[in-house]
Amino acid sequence: MATTLSVKTSDGINWHVEQQGSGPHLILIPSGEGDCESFSKGAKILSATFTVTTFDMPGMVRSPCPPEQIQNVDAPLMAKQINGLLDELHIEKATIFGSSSGSWAAFGLAAYYPERIQSIIVHEVPLVIFPSLFELLKLDDKGIVDNCRPLFENFFNEDAAAWNGIGKEYHERLEKNYVTWIRGYAATKNPFPLTNEEMKRRPVTWTIGALNQIGVWFNNIKKAHELGIEMELLNSKHFPYVSVPEEWAEHVKKSALKYL
């Protein structure tokens, strides 16, 4: 069973952290909605092999923070924030998994703090922000929630039952997290300013979901090819750790152990 911690870092973030298992350190960074409960099934599987640490992102319901920590959020800022958390947790070296905007943080950690990163595992990296998300900035909070709810349930997920099955409390938190995501994370004009050289400072394992329309993440395929990284597929869309947690956990385990 996971141990829940509340950890405050020097930047004023009060992190909701969950840890379980033993072995080499594995960090799971959630995507835009910012709540680590989506990892619950996969983290439990991985805890048989790793010390698994995951957390809610700054500004989300369970990780309150000063306003400046969720303004113009980009890969360098996210990496700096999480690096501070790793310091507080006394985690000297780890493998990082990041999904969606969590992959910004994974690449950022590998680029700016390579000495503490074994390798990174990323899924569907938003190399640019979808233009439609900027349109949501024009809406009030209720409008943002009303648009994000079906976006996550039906576009980002192929298994709505699994997504909804995470639980009532989780989805109640997302009602607020969606607003933080749109106004603080998705509003950033250039969230991923890393060069090709910076993206290759540590070993990278990169996947996209096989059940997406190819155009959605085609820029990931192009960028991985440009970097000489072999793209892999998972039998999912954007949330493999929700819809196919066993397959996802096996992929993460194999990828992490390869570089230990």
Automatic annotation (TrEMBL):
Domain of life: Eukaryota
InterPro entries found in the cross-reference section: AB_hydrolase, AB_hydrolase_1, AB_hydrolase_fold
Name of one Pfam family that matches: Abhydrolase_1
UniProt GO molecular function: triacylglycerol lipase activity
Protein name, entry field: AB hydrolase-1 domain-containing protein
Domain annotation AB hydrolase-1: ranges: 24-133
GO biological process assignments: glycerolipid catabolic process
